[in-house]
Amino acid sequence: MLSRIAESLFWIGRYVERAEATARILDVHLQVLVEDPVLDRDAACRSLLAAMAVEWEGPADVADVLRVLLSDAQSPSAIAYALSMARDNARRSREIVSTELWEALNTTHLLVANGQLGRMRPSDAFRLVRERTNMIAALANSTQSHDDGWQFIKLGGMIERVDMTARMILMTTYGTGSAASWQVTLRACGASHAFTRAYRGSESPRAAAEFLLQDRLFPRSVSFALAEVATCLDRLDPKARRIGFSGDAKRIVGQALARLEYRSISELLGDVRGEMEQLQRVGVQATEAVSKRYFEGAIPPEWLRGGS
Amino acid sequence: MTGIFDAYQTRPNTFDEMFTESGETRAAYAGVRRQVEHLAPSDVRTRADYLSHTYLDQGVTFDIGGEERPFPVDIVPRLIDNQAWSVVDAGVAQRVRALEAFLADIYGEGQVFNDGVIPRSVVTSSPHFLRAAKGINPPAGVRVHVSGIDLIRDAKGDFRVLEDNVRIPSGVSYVMTNRRAMSAALPEAFAHHRIRPVTQYPGKLLAALRACAPSGAGAGDPTVVVLSPGSYNAAYFEHALLARLMGVRLVEGRDLVAQAGRVSVRTTNGLVPVHVIYRRVDDDFLDPVHFKRDSVLGVPGLLNAARRGNVTIANAVGNGVADDKLVYTYVPDLIRYYLAQEPILPNVDTWRMEDPEHREQVLDRLGELVVKPVDGAGGKGIVIGPRATQQELDALRARLLDDPRGWIAQPVVQLSTVPTLIGDQLAPRHVDLRPFAINDGDKVWVLPGGLTRVALPEGELIVNSSQGGGSKDTWVLAPEPGDPVRTAEQAHDASVLHPAHRTARAAALREGGTTDEPASESTMVSTQSQSQSQSQSGSQTQSQSQSSGAPSDGGIR
Hints:
The structure holds two protein chains of two kinds.
Chain A: H1 3-35, H2 41-51, H3 62-71, H4 79-92, H5 99-112, H6 122-143, H7 148-174, H8 179-188, H9 192-199, H10 205-214, H11 222-236, H12 248-261, H13 265-270, H14 272-295
Helix pairs in contact in A: 1-3, 1-4, 1-6, 1-7, 1-8, 2-3, 4-5, 5-6, 7-8, 7-11, 7-14, 8-10, 11-12, 12-14
Chain B: H1 30-37, H2 41-58, E1 61-64, E2 67-70, E3 73-80, H3 82-106, H4 111-114, H5 120-124, E4 146-153, E5 159-165, H6 172-185, H7 187-191, H8 201-211, E6 224-227, H9 236-246, E7 249-251, E8 256-259, E9 262-267, E10 270-274, E11 276-279, H10 283-286, H11 302-307, E12 312-314, H12 325-328, H13 331-339, E13 351-352, H14 356-364, E14 369-373, E15 383-384, H15 390-402, E16 407-411, E17 417-422, E18 425-434, E19 436-439, E20 444-446, E21 451-455, E22 469-476, H16 488-492, H17 499-510, H18 525-532, H19 540-548
């Protein structure tokens, strides 16, 4: 696999996952704004922007949030931007990306280009993005050979998932940390139903945090995503060593996974914010290690900020 | 019921490919006419819209100034019957063989100069003649692996060569995608014709590239890559499509490394050797060691690797000299010289501005002619006399006198027309044809079809995508029962003359005598075109009489 192509595929995975997660977060956030009559709208919007690492000064309203995170293709945090970058990366790897995956990425980009997402009803826009990104992921799964190229797409997607789930949990801490705000996070992760089934109606913040951080079966939990990252790295570099790890990325991810799995939930909840920031650093460091190991020689384009 | 073709008006003094002068439908088009007429006009429009949509969705685009645009494809196909095609097939293959021999000669011994067929200065003064390419012996002896020979049909309907493209001819991807899109948009018409397929192209190309690999490369399993300048190149879609259909890597310069005379590609598992590079990067940008030093598109050291015979560059470096429009004027003579055959496809009559006699004649009638820069591409710099203002002509005159080597002049040739959907109406639009040929060192194979380009503005004669052109699916019809059978070999089997034989022949021709071998070995098809082909150098009188009769509202690309 060409280094440059591997890098493009990795970023297709990341951008598609980012677009989906952003759509989920926005969707739930707007519902909360509507449903909660006493909420400080300005503060809520600003905390959302902060969680998404958007630098913002002064008051913020829903229109600002939608522009910066949804429709403005010039805004690096926006869904429209992520989808157009995913398409751009696919264009650079056209001979590797399957025709069906390419067409799905291309038509999705055409649907959201030129601020078209901003002209839709927000809930329709979120649904469109969720459906299209899931279709893209499914096509990647079912029309690409599960070779190294596919592993890179998946690796990117899972690293992004760790990062975005950490952001969603981080956002909970900006609020009251109440059971209600954990419910919001569960919904944003698409975990509400699975959580209810697993915990039979318990709504404690502790249970919710446990589920989102440590559940081994739920595909959007942090530990699930980290384990997938580790599997991808193994497949890409199967050389087993008697001692230690052959790649930096594996060591970084392995440590994070162990930290998550072998600590009690009370410990983790003691400093949720610190833990989540730590997880985001894991994403950045793992990406750096993967770049160094596999993408060497490819000129780093503008998406270096992608990890932060 | 009134048909969509009823109001169609052919243009005066122009060959319309679908209708005769008296308004009859030509036989090849009868089926298409029937099928299109069965549709309501709005239905025709709907299907045309489908075509543009599907191209947008699939990303079948080309870039203009960084903007990706779908390449327009018209709903009415262009048909070429088997008879006409066999002339094109044989003529293109013949031309490619002569150009191959010419390039091998001028980058080697240069015998063609000594024999007085073409002045040495014409070649050495071409900006595309690269001394760096001297002494590189391409594996399998092939320099023109892929060529696109641009043809037009003149007022009589005869194909003539407009220019040769043996550097990095583009457009073949649209031949393949047009066919796919049209079979979905107009399935009825498809079902009623026996159309020769175009899907073999990628397989033929890969086989030819592998056949031209350096001997012993990769233990008989050579690695082929497609080298593209990157996703911002106008033809990026094509580079990606070819790589994908051949199942080979699409690389950019920065993916390749040339070390110790060998070329490798950077992969996630380290460096992997490369043996054949189908490059879509211009000579100038290919190797900063030899050419543009600041180029980041190429690979430093690539040319040395080629010189050592470790890598095949397709098409070979330095081919551009054969595309030079001044060299073009000598190609009929080159065919006679290298192949001992008469050209099957004639050139468009051309005056060389560096020839004082020609120059004088042209300057007298600048307003009637088309003047082209010899190294221009894409219609750039062309002045169509009848449409130019006095001021433009005066400026042109000064430029011609300043740099005669840089210009040629041609009579205004009316390109043929084909019905094309404009709004909700069919109207005649000028077309040309670029057939693609692949040379594997053993055989020249011509893809049955080629790219038909359409000038969309009314009366426009410059047919180029960068000038707002469109395209048509080009159907070459399979032989009908009763068609004369002609095997490809008869026309293709033009072997290149032995050098000693060439010299003797050239000497005999100079003496005004004839040589003992027959002028042409190809049968049937070439007989008809032989009578129309004419020597460029000896055709002055004839060109004049032809061009003075040419209509004034024409032009050429």
